[in-house]
Amino acid sequence: MAGNLAIHSARAFVKSEKGRIEDRISSLPDDLLVSILLFLPTKEAVSTMILSKRWRSIWTMLPELEYIDSDYKQLPGKKKESIWWFLDESLQLHKAPLLQRLIIELGPGCPVDVDADIIKWIAYSDELKVNQLYFKLSWLSVPIILPESLYVCDTLVDLTISDKILLDVPSPVCLPALKYICLHYIVYKDEDSLVRFLSGCHALEYLYVERHDNDALKNFRVEVPSLKTLEYTYVKLGTNNVGNMGGSLVIDAETLGEFYLTDYSGNSCLIENKPRLDRATISVLCYPNDNFMKSLSSVIYLYILLSTETVVCCHAINFSQLIECTIISLQFDWLQPFMCFLQNSPQLKVLLIDQLDGDFPLSFTPPSSVPGCLSTHLEMFEWKGYRGRNGEKEVVKYILANSKYLKRAAIIIKPCSLENKKKMIKELKSVSRVSPLSRLLFSPLNWIPWYI
Prior knowledge:
Elements: H1 2-10, E1 13-15, E2 21-23, H2 30-37, H3 42-47, E3 64-68, H4 84-93, E4 101-106, H5 115-127, E5 132-137, E6 144-145, E7 158-163, E8 165-167, E9 180-184, E10 187-188, H6 191-199, E11 206-210, E12 219-223, E13 229-234, E14 248-252, E15 258-263, E16 268-271, E17 279-284, E18 287-288, H7 290-294, E19 301-306, H8 312-316, E20 324-329, H9 335-343, E21 350-355, H10 372-376, E22 380-386, H11 390-402, E23 408-413, H12 418-429, E24 439-444
């Protein structure tokens, strides 16, 4: 059915004035026909070669190819069809002078022993001068080593490798055009391979890393002078115990502007210089060093998990540029550090608190002076997971009573009995608000009236 649809999409017949049927689309220039085929899945685009001699080689000029094993369905009573055979044959026939994008996702439907074929495909993509390469293997028992030619490709701009791949990097590495790298759950031969790989990417601007427990690395070092954005995720699997595992994340990237860190490994996190960060997401149960925390002083947008490891920043850092902030609170008495944070964030306009579950006690003591952000800047305030405990009530009352420029406050109440909810709403409605323009909104937890 899909094949027929592809054929009819690629060929149009019209009647001439004399009543004869004419195939006008086949007379279009090659580049326009290639543009039409780009709207089709790769397999359907290739199937147009049976239309006529005119169409036989058009698909071979496609600048984008996608081979996704999950697209091949299980037929009743038959073994799952694999994309392997189609990929192997069609890739060898491809003739485009430049391959803008190649996507290969191989799953368990492929033959077991295809290491040589995989290496051949990657090497051939280098010959085609690929710009963007996405390669995922999800079924091999032993990760494969990518060909050395990949590490000296002068046209590669965007690289994503995922799952059963071993980063075993020769020396030297030369990837002069590579700007974007995504490393999803791969395995590393050793720490030197990672360092050699990144050191050969002189134009690298964006690095995404998602690690797993068995990736063979203890220390993960990112030393990239040109790096602008780093996203790093290491969620330790199979355990509820978080403690220092003796490993580390080390960052040496002085031009870094955006940093998104999720690390629950218990390792240390070190920054060897002080980049000027504009945007940061810090969700960690690890141990950041002083430079790491100080690098947050320049952020404009901040998302932070307030834990025993990060609470020190509330006291020690002056967030002089901070405008928007989301605070996730864990199970400890966080209200006093939170007030210190407000004192140190004079430009803050948008504040969201997301309070996680827990019945731990909270205590609140008003500061000696009103935080400057409340007096001059705060416009939006939201509290998710509000429970109506004494400490929470006192903080909300304090913010509403002192935020002169507040336009909207949203209290998102944790699900509870209707009676308790009405009681909390009544209490908060009675709180005096210094800003005549402020609107107070209430909702259950699953409704969010606005977003940061």
